[in-house]
TrEMBL record:
It comes from the Eukaryota. It is found in: Secreted. Residues 9-110 form the R-spondin Fu-CRD domain. Its main location: secreted. The keyword Cell cycle does not apply. Belongs to the R-spondin family. One of its GO terms (biological process) is Wnt signaling pathway. PROSITE patterns: TSP1. It comes from Manacus vitellinus. The keyword Cell membrane does not apply. This is R-spondin-2. Residues 171-191 have a biased composition (Basic residues). GO terms for molecular function: heparin binding.
Length: 212
């Protein structure tokens, strides 16, 4: 219906020139439209966005949805479609889905997601399956999937993660210690050099005495 000096009372059982429809036909919904400081009654087949149809013995009415960010609702406290950018979840509208639920983008709904348990303690620091022989290694912790997601397209969060750690034992017990071996080789080379130097010095002294 449109309103001017003479309102058009389509679907009305009774109509007012100033206020539009006052009563509607049985199957239609009465909707009170506000325009600035004035308001007009309309009789509609379906209620506009943000309202739901409430049927009563007296007269069917369009009642406002009480759910925040709701575009259309089934009842006063249960939203069936949220406004753009919001996800529907159990009759409410959310910017992001609650914990344990995943966003289904094509329907803008929150569905049961992948539920995981608590993290385990960090494991033993190791490298190449050894817990010694290196300065640095990796330690890992895990968690179990408690409940699989409702849809296969919804990924589960990571169930294992690792971090760098310092080995408790740099050298393995009973193993060859490469660094001491290097030190031993250096000492041996130094000793040989000293012996050669002493030998050359002795030859020099003997030659010098002969020349005298």
């Amino acid at each position: 219906a449109s309103y001017g000096p003479n309102p058009i009372c389509k679907g009305c059982l009774s109509c007012s020139k100033d206020n539009g429809c006052i009563r509607c036909q049985h199957k239609l919904f009465f909707f009170l439209r506000r325009e600035g400081m004035r308001q007009y009654g309309e009789c509609l087949h379906s209620c506009p966005s943000g309202y739901y149809g409430l049927r009563t013995p007296d007269m069917n009415r369009c009642s406002r949805c009480r759910i925040e960010n709701c575009d259309s609702c089934f009842s006063r406290d249960f939203c069936t479609k949220c406004k753009t950018g919001f996800y529907s979840h159990r009759g409410r509208c959310f910017r992001g889905c609650p914990p344990g639920f995943a966003a289904l983008e094509e329907l803008m709904e929150c569905v049961e997601g992948c539920e995981v348990g608590q993290w385990s303690e960090w494991g033993t620091c190791s490298r190449n399956n050894k817990t010694c022989g290196f300065k640095w290694g990796l330690e890992t912790r895990t968690r179990q999937i408690v409940k699989k997601p409702a849809k296969d397209t919804i990924p589960c969060p990571t169930i294992a993660e690792s971090r760098r750690c310092k080995m408790a034992m740099r050298h393995c017990p009973g193993g060859k210690r490469r660094r001491p071996a290097k030190t031993k080789d250096k000492k041996k080379k130094k000793k040989n050099l000293m012996e050669r130097a002493q030998k050359q010095h002795s030859i020099f002294l003997a030659t010098d005495k002969t020349s005298q």
